[in-house]
Amino acid sequence: MPFVYSPALLNPRLQVNLLETPTNNINLVSAVGAWNKGNWVQIDAVTARRVIGLIICCTQGTGGRQYRFDIGIGNLGVEVVLVPDISFDCDNVDQQTSGPYRIEVDIPPNMRLTARTADLAGNNNFDISVTQEQLV
To answer: pTM of the full predicted structure?
Structure first.
């Protein structure tokens, strides 16, 4: 895995717990029609601690597509976009995976973490894996 920035490098007193096991194979499905967002999919039902970073890897799904996905928080049916329109372009057969993306966030404990996607053609899917950086 390539080097990933961590706030703990700048402040050694800041203790960060990098969850060793990512949430793998989260399948995101876009809605019918170009760039229509699909339903929210749960990444974590309840964050155990304050989350300050997400490390995300994407895997090519149904054919070569250009995707945009959102990271959100909130209870079922009332999710709020936290990080909008992260781009994942897998039009090239050789580009089967993308990432890791490291995204700085500030998510309080006890929050539901979710994601959703849209793509150029509509009604397609791909998988993401998410590792959380949590404050200890």
So the answer is: 0.82
